[in-house]
Each structure stands twice: as structure tokens, then as C-alpha cells.
Amino acid sequence: MTAGLAMMTIALALFTGIGAIFRGPEQPVPSFSHKTHVTVNKIDCLHCHAGTDKSQLAGFPAVATCVGCHLYLGRSRQKPGILKLFEYWEKKEPIPWLRVYYLPQFVQFKHKPHIRAGVTCQTCHGDVRNMAVAQMNQKITMGWCVQCHTNTQGKAKLAQAPKDCAICHH
Known about the structure:
Layout: H1 3-22, H2 34-40, H3 45-48, H4 63-70, H5 80-91, H6 111-116, H7 121-125, H8 142-150, H9 156-159
């Protein structure tokens, strides 16, 4: 293999790998669209991700939450995603949603204090309301978090953000 071909192969692997980091996983309910739910139907993030303002994890919507609305939307019952949703409902199985963001096990992140400080979902998760498929807005790193905790620029509540390592690492 020539050096040029080797470099092209490495570049392609890196490019594809980086793309995979930001591309969201294929979810178990086909064609689920955050854009449709959030922008078109005006559903607040906390309606589906209930408890996010009180717990560490954002959590996924229970099948009952989805069916609670879709039971009354007869016109869309024949769409593949809705049919799959009702399969989970009828089998009394939770939807095995796939996470988009992962943090190392030694990092503890709590949504509650961030929401109370006025940090919007979009700050970390990007413009989900315009994403058909949820995807990683950016890789969440310690440097990225520290930058937000130290760059407060007139945001009084963020100026009070803890900077003690033990807050996140324990």
C-alpha cells in the first residue's frame, strides 16, 4: 500500500468516525421526529422527558406517555412509527430508546441544578426542536463544562455555578 493510499484510508476512517460521533443512533420507533413533536406540536421537552428537572438523568418517555397522545390521533395510526409504538404498548413492553449522550462512569451530571439556573435544553443538546432525529450536538467534555461554568458573562446564576471537582467527580 502506498503512503498516499494509507493516508486516504486513515483520513476516511477518521472522517467517518467523527461523523458517527455526532449522528444520532437509529431509534426503535422508526421516523420519530423531535421536530414534529417540539416545533410542530409545541410539546415541551419536560412533557416527554418528565422528571428531568428533578433527577440526574433525562430519562426516556414511557410508552404510556406516547400512547396518551397518539391514542387520540387516529389519522396517523397507520404510520410505521406509530404502529411500532402500539406494538410496544400491546406487549406491555417499554420502548428500548437509545441514548445519544454518554458520560464516563466517574462523572455525575444532574439536570436539576442546570434547569433551575436557567440553562436551556438547547445549550447542551443543540437545536433539538429542528432535528428530525436527535443527534449529539457536540461531545460533552470536561473542558466544555468548565468553559460554561467559568464563562458567565453577565449571567448571575451561572456566576454561582460550582467549580469544585467533587461536584461532578465522585
